[in-house]
Amino acid sequence: MISYELSEEQKIVRSTMSEFANTVLRPETRRLDDNSKIDDGVLSALWATEIIQSQADADGEGRSPVTNAIILEELAAADASLALAVASSMGFVQAIADQGSAKQRELLKAFAGPKFQAAAIAMMEPSFSFDVSKISAKASKAGDEYVLSGKKAYVPLASSCSHFLVIAESDGAADAFIVPRDAAGVKVEAPKGTLGLRALELAEVSFDGVKVPASMRLGEGNGADIQKIVDSARVGLASIMAGLSRGVLEYVVPYTKERIVHGTPLAQKQKVAFDIADMKIDIDAMRWMNWKAAWELESKLPATRTAQLAYTYASQQTMQIADNGLQAFGGHGFVKAHPIEMWYRNARSLSVLEGVAGV
Amino acid sequence: MISYELSEEQKIVRSTMSEFANTVLRPETRRLDDNSKIDDGVLSALWATEIIQSQADADGEGRSPVTNAIILEELAAADASLALAVASSMGFVQAIADQGSAKQRELLKAFAGPKFQAAAIAMMEPSFSFDVSKISAKASKAGDEYVLSGKKAYVPLASSCSHFLVIAESDGAADAFIVPRDAAGVKVEAPKGTLGLRALELAEVSFDGVKVPASMRLGEGNGADIQKIVDSARVGLASIMAGLSRGVLEYVVPYTKERIVHGTPLAQKQKVAFDIADMKIDIDAMRWMNWKAAWELESKLPATRTAQLAYTYASQQTMQIADNGLQAFGGHGFVKAHPIEMWYRNARSLSVLEGVAGV
Amino acid sequence: MVDFSLTEGDQRFLDLIQEEYELGRKFAREVDREAEHKPPVVKTLHPALEGKPDPYELLHESDEGTSGHIMVDALMHMVSAKDLDMRPEGLGFGSMVLEDFGTDEQKAKFGHLRLAIGLTEPGAGSDPGNMASTWRYDAATDEYVLNGEKVFISAINKLDGAVTLLRGVPDEQGRRVFSSFIITKDMKGFHEMQQFQKLGMHQFDIAGFTMDDIRVPAINRLEADFGRTMSRFNHNRPLVAAGALGLCRSMLDFTKAKLAEGGIEVDYARGVKARSAAEDKIIRMEALWEAAWGTVMEVKWKQTQLGTTSLGYRTEASMAKAIGGKAARQITQGCLELLGPEGLSEDYLAEKWFRDARIADIYEGAGEIQRILVARDVLGYKKGELN
Amino acid sequence: MVDFSLTEGDQRFLDLIQEEYELGRKFAREVDREAEHKPPVVKTLHPALEGKPDPYELLHESDEGTSGHIMVDALMHMVSAKDLDMRPEGLGFGSMVLEDFGTDEQKAKFGHLRLAIGLTEPGAGSDPGNMASTWRYDAATDEYVLNGEKVFISAINKLDGAVTLLRGVPDEQGRRVFSSFIITKDMKGFHEMQQFQKLGMHQFDIAGFTMDDIRVPAINRLEADFGRTMSRFNHNRPLVAAGALGLCRSMLDFTKAKLAEGGIEVDYARGVKARSAAEDKIIRMEALWEAAWGTVMEVKWKQTQLGTTSLGYRTEASMAKAIGGKAARQITQGCLELLGPEGLSEDYLAEKWFRDARIADIYEGAGEIQRILVARDVLGYKKGELN
Q1: Is residue B97 in some structural domain?
Q2: Among A104, C175, C277, D200, which residue is least crowded by beta carbons within 10 Å?
Q3: CA–CA separation, A162 vs A144, rounded Å?
Q4: Measured between beta carbons, which residues in chain C are less than 8 angstroms from residue A278?
Q5: Range of lowest pLDDT (A60-64, A225-229, A308-312, C383-387)
Q6: Does residue C87 lie within any of the structural domains?
């Protein structure tokens, strides 16, 4: 029975997150980008929202991909980097909660506590030919262990992570391995300077003959469904892009109404007004696509197609929205006095980071 | 030394063709589309321009791809079907003039006369997977002959053609064969009803074990350079698309200036004015791309890249121009009282007909 | 709870309509070729449907076990292309205006009539300010006298008459008041015009009529001014988008099937760098299709919550129409590009769908008008501040 | 005769500038990181260029054996990205206005100065009607008194002063007459502002200045009204487009090379159905690049025929700027998409080119303004009829 009705709880979560994002996160966003770092205070504030903790309960009843899509949109409307900081840990926790063995799920207890704790899925690789369907990292079975080798890249907050969920090819198929950051052979590089999402400290992590006990192969015996992880990541990223796009629209509207050009407000120029209408249309459409894909994940239905379509649409339209938003500001869009230039960078970055999030 | 200067002769040809196209061709265009046929009077008038005859002289000095690009644009600004009727025979004549042996070039004498004479390159095939790089028709050598088998499609004026230049795969590479229409095993089907360019009577031609003497293999001993034929066809089609686009713009301008909506002329709405500006920009850009590719062909330089880019750009932008042109007319764009709906059909048709033209 | 599942009831209706559309598809080419030159073929039930219930009528009778008739109606439009009008026209747009705003007396008198809506005029396009048709009150006979011309009217040929929106001759203050009237074809002074010859939608009648001193009594005047008459658009616009999406669904499915025959299959799992150009294009077109689907269903859900005559979902209705119109253009253009030359042939319906779809971004308010309506809402502008 | 060949002379200049740009590329990342936070590094000749002649100066001295200095200048801009200002700034835009419209006396007095152009104001954007800066004549001292603020000025930090366009205080008829004045940094009341912190183009100074009762004699006033001052844009706009295309050239070449390493090569011979998604995207981006190249070269050819101060090529100049700006946005966005996550890294210049390119559709008249100018010409509208 088709419905777009949020539950009472979801309505509360949405307004709480919106309030939090606007008052606590938004004022920090330029500073974090300038410093290329999320400082402890902001991380603690994020953690105190208990978004991650709520994913980590053992019976899985507390988790709702739809609710998570809503949360990520709200956070990203204020700051996409911080939303992705959450989505990254969320992806890790969710993958294990959904697909982990009982023993593996025990690890999640560490995420239920009051102290900030990061972890990430290590999917992408430092190659211009990288594609989620072509993983180069290898895990070969040797007795009761897997030996893991390869290089992963663009891992959010890598140096703060306690664990990585490393996607590697094993026996001809992609598989996932839970690897503590301090395992022998794991090396976290210094963060790379990146176009956007600078505060996330995206870094390379190399795995050099890392020994992983078979019990830490996600799902143990039968291995994991990596496509589910990718699907969830795509929906997570798409939700963040919807939020970023909304942030742009909400910033463009008052500016273009106030700015007078040739005697009329910029917003009364058809070009600008049509761009604004298209932003609104596309942002809403992104949201419904995200909800639909998230609902399929939540209902344990195959979600690969809808997740791909949601991600594709969000990637394409978010770039366009950030681009048109910048254009509406003219020269003021190019300078750092306004956040638009940062959103332009973040928009392009989000749409190529397949695999680092989750709902 | 870069120059955009037309020769005096080119300037005269351009204005003559423009005059001819507007006064003789344009008034016929709706009638021909309705009847799905170019009648003899119009064909004779086209022939009397001596465009084709001028391609057919034996020494090749009379031919200029740049001039031909100019001619095709002018004709197509009035009627793309008629422009393609010319470009189709032109492609045939040019391929033989450029690449044919002395004996093969003798055939062109028939095209120098005063009586209308059609011929066409038979490149495309009736398959949804067709691509110019994947030809299914086969020619196998048997002694002093080739045996040709396969089905070709969308051959312009097929039933009026005296000859076809059939592109077929032979010994692992594409090759071209001159085949008289009345050769045994050649069968011209009844014209297909098509979306656009209806007057061209596009038809399938099947070749069922047709025996072609080796002397009618284009270029004889070493065979022909099929890519050159494709390059020339792409530039020819791109020139026709530039013309079609110009026709749209020239029709849209007066209409949108005269049509009053909410108290102002439609053309004063930014959306419409910006579309018109973009049409103008893209049409000019197409023309320069076409000239550059045609100049490379004329200079015997490799033209594959520029021809592809000219064709790609023209295909993409012409569809958009016809689409936006139709939109500017609103409901009037959808009815046959205006030619816009026909141009919308022709725009989409031209951009998928790779291989049926030449400059 | 956010939910995207179809009930068994929903699915039954979708199957029914899909079956009906597929029956029609066999006759689609013939009707496309001839409908413009012959009088409309299907004024009565098409023989192929003999004995089959009208799924829309069934739905109207009971939506029990479904997501609700407003939602299912939209879903049915999106199932696949409707290539043929196989049933006598149901209640027209004008009948719905009567239903929404007529008095009980008017409904009793005119409720049996199937009425089109007459809005657009040849020189006015979407601009009501340019309307030249008039009504005036003749106190001598207590009648209203109607004059003018209306065009681009859906199915007028198949209906009994129309609700037409006219401007009064100037009153004492010089104002020209909008008012709607019920007129029928049998009235003196009503002249039906010939069908338009058009790009596509040949199966779908679009024509016009002139009013030459038509005289009607007061009961034919509806208490539906400009705003009220137009409000019915909020229900209809998403359905126009939905119909376009149904057509695009057929186009996409056809294209995918034909490309698959040549070995090009769509894999939704891989990233962009592992795809063919055709695959990437299909994924982008399907993404746009899904975007429009979500938008249509959201406004239909909202309409379900608020009631059809509410103005509370009108911006969403414009959004659905705008994205549906855009999808119709881009998807049909894109699929024909992928299908290559063979797609041009009348041997298949693809080229027909390309022609049919183009009206979607024009009628019931062109994309430009929808964007103005959306932008006004987002920007908090009134009419006059943004046109 | 239509001709697209490069002469040997042309090629020599292209090689020279390419060599210079490649030298600069080594320092590009460092300058990008630091230029915003430190005073501009390269006020004088960069050591890497020690002893190397300035190709633009060489061209200025003699264009013999080339396609002409106007054409070659444009070609040089399109060769590849200019990542670094490695030479002291040449004559600025303001100096060109002086050259075009100054009297002999003014040229003699000010010709040695390197002058920027001061047009834009913080609240006015591209709209001269909103200019708040003023000039007034003080009869007592026979001086002009200048006040106001100008922003977004290229290279003002490196130049000696500016030509600035101001509006007079209202005269007897209430008119506010535009006039241009030469001002220098050493004047009392001239205050240079800090560099803007910006998205990209860190190597490129953009700042502003305020005028606080600057007093200048009559000789500093140029006979260049609004129209004449702006006419210089016709020369410059295509060059801005050309610079953006140079940057896009580097971006495309880099992308093609990196994809080729992973086995994705562009084949221009095949049709669309035989391509990968990446290949198709590159072909479309290169097509746009060629479209813009042809447009830039056509206007530069026309400028060569008509002379730089002619108004006969201004629509073409706007067309070049519009398509160049569009290409800059689409190509840099598209290439970064194809490069995937690795393209985000500061280990390569791709992400810098993405940031740098975005200004191309904004400065020297945003794409919107260019389209208005083009549309006015095509439609035969005057200012005021289309804004």
Answers
A1: yes
A2: C175
A3: 23
A4: 322, 371
A5: A60-64
A6: no
Q: Helix (H, G, I), strand (E, B), or coil: what is residue A47?
A: helix
Could you give the number of structural domains in chain A?
3
Write the residue in B131, B282, B308 that is nearest to D268 by C-beta.
Answer: B308
B-contacting chains (≥3 CB pairs under 8 Å): A, C, D
Among residues B68, B88, B115, the one where a domain terminates is: B115
Say if B3 falls within a structural domain: no
Identify whether C335 is part of a domain.
yes
CB contact under 8 A, A271 and B269: no
Which residue of C lies nearest to A279 if distances are taken between CA atoms? C375
C386 touches chain A (CB under 8 A): yes
Place of tokens 């069934």: C58
- Cβ-contact D290, B307 below 8 angstroms: no
List, in sequence order, every residue forming a beta bridge with D168; answer none if it has no partner.
D135
Q: Chain C, 207-266: which have a CB under 8 Å from a chain D CB?
A: 262, 264
Distance (Å) from the C-alpha of residue C276 to the closest C-alpha of chain D?
4
Q: Which of C6, C84, C97 is nearest to C45 (CA)?
A: C84
Which phi and psi angles does B36 have, rounded to 5°? 50, 45
Residues A340, A231 share a domain: yes
| A58-99 residue pLDDT tens | 566 678 999 999 999 999 999 999 999 999 999 999 999 999
Q: Do C97 and C214 reside in the same domain of the chain?
A: yes
Q: Are residues B345 and B291 in the same domain?
A: yes
Show residues of chain C in contact with B336, CB under 8 Å.
Answer: 196-199
Measure the CA angle with vertex A177, ends A174 and A180; round to 5°.
150
Residues D243 and D354 in one domain: yes
D contacts of C261 (beta carbons < 8 Å): none
- Per-residue pLDDT tens over the stretch A219-261: 998 899 999 999 999 999 999 999 999 999 999 999 999 998 8
**How many whole angstroms separate alpha carbon A96 and alpha carbon C290?**
30
**Hey, how many other C-beta atoms are within 10 angstroms of the C-beta on D217?**
10
Entry pTM:
0.95
**CB C353 within 8 Å of CB C332:** yes
Closest by CA position to B92, among listed B73, B111, B106: B111
Query: Scanning every residue of chain A, which has its alpha carbon at the shortest distance from the alpha carbon of B274?
Result: A271
Q: At what angle do helices A304-329 and A226-258 cross, to 10 degrees?
A: 20
| CB-based contact D71:B2 (threshold 8 Å) | yes
Say if the ipTM goes beyond 0.90. Answer: yes
Q: Tell me, what amino acid is at B298?
A: E
Examine the fold and report which residue of D162, D193, D226 is the final residue of a domain before the chain moves on.
D226
- Distance between CA atoms of residues B118 and B43, nearest Å: 10
For an interface test with B, give the residue of A270, A278, A327 to mutate (most B CBs within 10 A).
A270
Q: In which domain, by residue range, is A194 found? A: 119-222
Domains: count for chain C: 3
Residues of B with CB under 8 A from a CB of A: 269-271, 274
* Domain extent for C366: 232-379
Mean pLDDT by 10 residues, chain B (359 residues): 96 97 96 95 93 76 90 98 96 94 92 89 95 95 96 96 97 96 97 95 97 96 93 98 98 96 91 98 98 97 98 98 97 95 98 92
Q: Which of residues 74-133 of D touch B (CB under 8 A)?
A: 75
User: Residue B271 and residue A270: Cβ atoms within 8 Å?
Assistant: yes
Specify whether C132 is located in the same domain as C46: no
Asked if residue D375 and residue D283 are part of one domain, the reply reads yes
Number of helical H runs and strand E runs in chain D: 11, 8
Query: Does the CB of D344 have a partner CB in chain A at under 8 Å?
Result: yes
> Looking at the domain assignment, is residue C373 inside a domain?
yes
Residues of C in contact with B326 (CB under 8 A): 358
Using the structure block, give the residue that is written with the tokens 């042109």.
Answer: B325
Residues of D (215-274) whose Cβ lies below 8 Å from A: 258-259, 261-264
